[in-house]
């Protein structure tokens, strides 16, 4: 147990040292899957509660059993495609979130061939969310309120 705690503390210190230059937090799960958090506006808070690892952002909180998380790290984009952030846009895990849009505005996500992959309509508070969970890895274009933004899903 002491070795696991020391390993986690070591990972935290390594992550903290590289967080400024990084733009994606990656959780590597024991199942072989990864969970990515694109860091556009904020750094998520990583905390530990009993036997859980908790990742918190301003819009969500995800809890993982400590035994399900092998390790986490920060990565930079290596594709050369930068995420150009639009006003009011956040990418949080597998969701694109917009706030401050005019009511009824369309948010549309297209792949590189121009195929519409997902969309949402801003509600009365100007909030819209598009799930990108089922998207394949690749480059996508988001169009909202006549502003296009490029992002890469790995």
Proportion in helices: 10-25%
The best one-word shape is globular
Secondary-structure element series: HEEEEEEEEEEEEE
Number of helices: 1
How many DSSP E strands? Answer: 13
Q: Give the CATH topology of the largest domain.
A: SH3 type barrels
Output the structural class.
Answer: mainly beta
Integer-rounded radius of gyration: 17 Å
* The CATH architecture of the largest domain: Roll
Lateral strand order in the biggest sheet = 10-9-12-13
The CATH class of the largest domain: Mainly Beta
Features:
disordered N terminus; mainly beta; SH3 type barrels; Immunoglobulin-like; 2 domains; 13 strands; 154 residues; 3-stranded antiparallel beta sheet
Describe the structure.
This protein is mainly beta. It has two domains: 2-75, SH3 type barrels (Roll), CATH 2.30.30; 89-153, Sandwich (Immunoglobulin-like), CATH 2.60.40.10. It is built from one helix and 13 strands; from the N terminus they run αβββββββββββββ. It has one helix at residues 2-18, and strands at residues 24-29, 34-38, 45-49, 52-56, 61-65, 69-75, 89-92, 95-98, 106-111, 116-121, 128-131, 138-144, 147-153. A four-stranded antiparallel β-sheet has the order 10-9-12-13, with no helix packed on it. A three-stranded antiparallel β-sheet has the order 2-1-6. The protein has a three-stranded antiparallel β-sheet with strand order 3-4-5, with no helix packed on it. A hairpin with a 2-residue loop joins strand 7 and strand 8. The two termini are 33 Å apart. Mean pLDDT is 75; it is low at 1-22 and 78-82.
């Amino acid at each position: 147990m002491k070795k696991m705690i020391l390993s986690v503390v070591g990972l935290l210190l390594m992550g903290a040292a590289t967080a400024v230059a990084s733009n994606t937090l990656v959780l590597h799960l024991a199942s072989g899957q990864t969970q990515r958090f694109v860091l556009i506006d904020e750094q998520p808070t990583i905390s530990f509660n009993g036997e859980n690892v908790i990742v918190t952002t301003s819009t969500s909180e995800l809890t993982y059993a400590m035994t399900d998380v092998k390790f986490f790290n920060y990565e930079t984009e290596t594709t050369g495609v930068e995420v150009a952030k639009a006003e009011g846009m956040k990418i949080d895990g597998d969701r694109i979130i917009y706030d401050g849009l005019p009511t009824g505005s369309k948010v549309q996500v297209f792949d590189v061939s121009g195929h519409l992959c997902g969309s949402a309509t801003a509600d009365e508070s100007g909030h819209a969310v598009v799930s990108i969970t089922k998207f394949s890895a690749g480059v996508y274009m988001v169009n909202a309120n006549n502003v296009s933004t490029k992002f890469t899903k790995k």
